[in-house]
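Sequence of MADF domain-containing protein (Hypothenemus hampei).
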Amino acid sequence: MCLIKMCDVKQVSETKMPFSRDITMRLIQEYEKYPELYNVQDPLYKNKTKRQECLNKIAISLGCYGHITIGDVKKKINGLRTQYFNEMAKRKKSQTSGTATSDIYTSHWWCFEMLHFLENSAPVRKGESNLDLESVSQQYSVLTGYRAAKKKKFFFDCFDCFTLSFYKTVLKLK
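Predicted 3D structure, token representation.
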């Protein structure tokens, strides 16, 4: 068993570290190596110590580009994930029924394709209803029947008014 000593990397950045494309590409490559950071199905995903170790390893591997802290890595990863899921939401929104394939949104963000490993990392939660569907359907059918009866009554009331006024008009003509 290999124990990795935590490097003395500062948690919070005192200066804002600019991330060039090269650094960002390297960060994405390193991030993909550690599924416990992004895959909620991974058994180590909930292990904060292991996640911290992984972030530390990423910060160390990016150390050749300058002083990059764990805080810098966390911020950049968060920004990349947010942008990726926004791009995915745009694509999904454009894929409505009847949309031509040429009208489906395609991302022009330069690192969109590199982040496809995140696609299944945020599972869609199954919505649950607190309504009893059987009682709701019974209430709906009762309400629908009531509305239908009310419409019929309205129709006959109008018909009666029409026939009454028609007869009055005919009687006046005679």
